[in-house]
Give the backbone structure.
Amino acid sequence: MAGGVGLLGRVRGVGDTVTRHEALEALSRLVTTNDLFVSSIGGLWDDWWNLRPGGEDNTFCPTVIGSVSSTALGLALALTVIVLVVLLTGFYVQRSNSRFDELARGLNRRFGQ
């Protein structure tokens, strides 16, 4: 936003930057108890808690929705299931081919086909 009034209520020029804390400070004045505040957790957690300490007016409830460990665990389990399916399918195909091919040959000999 070049030359306009920014979130902090001051005239901003080209190249002005706003720190995370300044932006949160401005947002903390706008957020009410009826608003849902969604963000990444990171360093925001502590900054927001310092600006709006616990209590009824703090609408920020940080929880870990997803993390690297749950993703890694899910991938490990999925790959394990895939490998297990491939191995069991191979075992079944080998067993059924060896067993049922002999039965099919016996039936063909018996009934003359």
In short: The radius of gyration is 32 Å. The chain has two domains: 1-64, 66-113.
